[in-house]
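Module 6 notes. Inverse folding takes a fixed backbone as the condition and produces residue identities as the prediction. Think of it as a translation problem where the source language is geometry and the target language is the twenty amino acids. Below is one complete input and output pair. Work through it position by position during the lab.
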């Protein structure tokens, strides 16, 4: 590649999960420290970071169509930006990207992005470079301090996965489970609050597997970390995602009944309602053990809103097994849930299993599942009508004077009234739609 001038503006585009959103923010902060500024809306950037997702095939393909778009726009403008591919596609397919997309000058894995500034220096000299090492903890220590935050912030506390579900690439792209140290997390949480956060969502591929040592050297799990963060002045709300049923302990269940700042919401993926499918997926729970676990959470926090993840069309899934998934949805009554068609991922055990399910069957099952989930979501929203609750104001709505925020149960609420981004307002939930609620502001709640 030809040497080029140092980039002055950047754009980071994150795909996929909230952990990628967090990584994208941290990369943007690093670029900011180097004096590179965000490209103004509507203008091409000198440096584009595509922070990719590899979880399903379609997510992975998006990166190539984005590169194509950037090259086309660059040719038209007479200057192609420096392109860095980051995230899980970079980790899994780094060499292939370099071979297939000559316009890409940097490939950086999710555990190595703290070294992006040095990679940019080499790219400016015309050198294409790849870094897919996995020194996870070193990454966090090398990132700049938190100086800016939205009212609802993310904080990655745990990365990687040792569960090896047979369909999933995460253990290969994000590596083994690691927990960030307790002291680093309490410090980063304080910095986020100083920078404007009122709500923090603790993130991890298996956030409930987090463990560490508190300031007295005692071993603590996620509940211990949440208890410590609940002491942070100015922090009003704590959430966490994504959990695995195998790691949910008594302390975490009790925390939901005891800590006011811990929001009444639990995202607990189940994937299927069929025990045979769950076993083939290498999930360690059964449909029944999952339901019993939810009962214990609901006993601790009766108004808990539940969410989950589902995969339809896992290899060998029969109509009767899919019906068991629908029955589980009926039994739980989710406030919201995510559902996906099974996507065969190269290198995972499920990719070579017999009886791969056809696309038409998957499409049809997904439609039925989503109809059931939407029905329950709307019912949950309707059951909230007439209630008063606190809403964290996150942004302006589409119309003048309109605001958008989240209820404690993570419902989107829109309303008009006197308030500002970052306020906690007491709102009357007046009218429920399938995806959001209309509220009426009662008062602003003091910090
Ligand atoms: N660790 C969490 C758990 O197992 O409970 C989930 C994290 S995973 C990044 C997010 C979701 O993507 C999974 O819960 C699953 O529903 C979905 N997913 C993962 N691999 C998939 C695949 N090969 N095809 C379709 N969906 C997939
Ligand atoms: Fe993937 Fe979650 Fe299973 Fe880990 S526990 S392998 S992240 S689906």
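Target side of the pair, the amino acids:
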């Amino acid at each position: 590649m030809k040497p080029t001038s140092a980039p002055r503006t950047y754009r980071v585009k994150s795909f996929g999960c909230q952990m990628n959103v967090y990584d994208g923010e941290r990369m943007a902060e690093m670029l900011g420290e180097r004096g590179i500024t965000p490209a103004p809306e509507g203008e091409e950037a000198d440096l584009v970071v595509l922070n990719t997702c590899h979880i399903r095939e379609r997510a992975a393909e998006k990166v190539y169509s984005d590169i194509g778009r950037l090259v086309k726009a660059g040719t038209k403008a007479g200057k192609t930006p420096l392109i860095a591919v980051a995230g899980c596609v970079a980790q899994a397919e780094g060499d292939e990207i370099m071979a297939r997309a000559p316009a890409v000058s940097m490939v950086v894995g999710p555990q190595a992005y703290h070294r992006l500034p040095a990679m940019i220096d080499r790219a400016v000299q015309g050198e294409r470079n790849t870094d897919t090492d996995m020194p996870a903890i070193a990454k966090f220590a090398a990132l700049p301090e938190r100086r800016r935050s939205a009212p609802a912030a993310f904080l990655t506390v745990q990365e990687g996965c040792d569960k090896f579900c047979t369909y999933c690439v995460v253990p290969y792209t994000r590596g083994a489970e690691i927990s960030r140290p307790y002291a680093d997390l309490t410090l980063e949480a304080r910095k986020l609050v100083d920078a404007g956060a009122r709500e923090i969502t603790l993130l991890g591929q298996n956030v409930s597997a987090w463990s560490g040592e508190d300031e007295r050297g005692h071993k603590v799990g996620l509940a211990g970390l949440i208890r410590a963060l609940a002491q942070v002045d100015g922090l009003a709300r704590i959430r966490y995602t994504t959990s695995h049923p195998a790691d949910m302990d008594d302390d975490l269940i009790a925390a939901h009944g005891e800590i006011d700042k811990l929001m009444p919401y639990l995202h607990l993926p189940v994937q299927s309602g069929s025990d045979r499918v769950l076993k083939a997926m290498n999930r360690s729970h059964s449909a029944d053990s999952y339901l019993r676990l939810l009962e214990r959470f609901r006993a601790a926090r009766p108004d808990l809103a539940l969410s989950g993840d589902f995969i339809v069309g896992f290899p060998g899934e029969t109509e009767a097994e899919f019906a068991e998934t629908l029955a589980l949805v009926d039994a739980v009554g989710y406030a919201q849930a995510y559902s996906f068609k099974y996507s065969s991922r190269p290198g995972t055990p499920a990719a070579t299993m017999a009886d791969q399910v056809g696309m038409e069957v998957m499409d049809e099952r997904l439609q039925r599942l989503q109809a059931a989930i939407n029905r329950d979501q709307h019912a949950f929203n309707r059951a909230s009508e007439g209630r008063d609750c606190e809403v964290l104001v996150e942004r302006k709505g589409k119309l003048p004077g309109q605001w958008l925020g989240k209820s404690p149960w993570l419902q989107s609420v829109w309303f008009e009234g006197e308030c500002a981004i970052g306020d906690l307002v007491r709102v009357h939930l007046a009218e429920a739609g399938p995806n959001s609620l209309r509220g009426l502001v009662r008062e602003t709640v003091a910090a």
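Reference fact for the lab report: Residues 161, 163-165, 168, 170-171, 205-206, 244 surround iron/sulfur cluster (ligand 2) (CB under 6 Å).
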